[in-house]
Prior knowledge:
Layout: H1 22-29, E1 36-37, H2 50-63, H3 65-69, H4 78-88, E2 100-103, H5 105-117, E3 123-127, H6 132-139, E4 144-148, H7 157-161, E5 166-169, H8 183-196, E6 199-203, H9 219-226, E7 237-242, E8 254-257, H10 260-271, H11 279-290, H12 293-319, E9 324-326, E10 334-339, H13 346-356, E11 358-359, E12 361-362, E13 375-379, H14 385-404
Helix pairs in contact: 2-11, 5-6, 5-10, 8-9, 12-14, 13-14
The structure holds pyridoxal-5'-phosphate.
Amino acid sequence: MDQFTQPERPAFARWLGGTNDVTHMFLSAGNGPDMINMAGGLPDPSVYPVAELAAIARDAVAKNPRDALNYSPIEGLPALRDAIAARFSDENLTLTRDNVLITTAGLQGLDLLGKVLIDEGGLIAAHSPTYLGAIDAWRARLPAYRPFNPESNAFDAVAALKGAQFAYTVPNFSNPTGRLIDLERRKALVEAAHETGTWLVEDDPYGALYYDGDPLPRLLSLSGAMRPGDTPYSGPVVYMGTLSKELAPGLRIGWLVAAPDLIAALTMAKQGSDMCSSGLTQRVALDAFAARLPERILPNILDLYKTRRDALCAALAEHLAPWFDFEKPVGGMFVWAVARDPSFDTDKLLKAALAEGVCVTPSSVFDVEGRNRRAIRINFTLNSAERLGEGARRLALAAARVAAA
Ligand SMILES: Cc1ncc(COP(=O)(O)O)c(C=O)c1O
């Protein structure tokens, strides 16, 4: 054997065979200077309160080095857990720090849920189409999926949840469709979780981003109302939040709110994952909450994103209508456009779009079986109104090419 020849190496784990390369394609192609990237779910960096966060971070290190620079408890800084418990408690729902685990943003919450609740072949009931990051987070667990669509007329919440380890849903401006689950279906889901015992995971990164109308109640709050006096809350809803869309994703701070026994199991999983989330950014989050920073920057975020949503929808109506239907979303970060022709292939559209200098996300990556190729998810928060208009024009050129092929 010469020095460059290797013996046969152990194979990579089986789950890697189930990944897709579409994500890789749009992540690696989506950032050139001439590329209009409407694929990701990214905030506009101009909304970050840079000066205030810089001052808070400096004070966190200088004044609270024990919190900021030490390992923190696995569950998170007690004061931050208390702040989250207080933020989500209401007249029917009493949360304590025992209901709260601080996570390294939302994605770690998804990963830990997979670790704690899914053995190989374990069943996940997934709101379909399903957030790509969740599918990715659970891939290594080798789960089985049963999709459900809470918008369908025939939706039966008990049938959707029964027998699953957990049900996963994004009730506020779902990623990818941008749609809301209405109040009646929210109640049906929560009642079904109480009846069947299935954990009901409410992933809510976009809950603050309502551009029109009043926010609908959280599943967690509806569940609390079904068992007033349950202190601390011990019901079936698992609520997931993050600072990524309300403040800054670089902080990597999120939280899981759930029954204390599930929080204890998730804490065990986190111990073997990263031991604890960054003490520095936990301390920054705590001080940012105390200064009401998320609440103070929200009006500016809502104004900016609402204008961009309207600009994108106007541009899509002008350029893309021959090929795609879409609804204007009430909030969130995405427009979901569905091809009029059921045989239109949006994986092919992505390739054509990249050649035109625009990037969107094809529906196949949000389908656990990769079969839905009829829709695209278009982000409107990252680019200016002008660039969104140009992006829609380029997308129309690509769509015309795919339709003619
Ligand atoms: C539905 C959903 N869940 C979770 C996340 C995770 O975000 P983060 O890890 O930044 O909190 C995202 C991010 O886009 C999302 O869209």
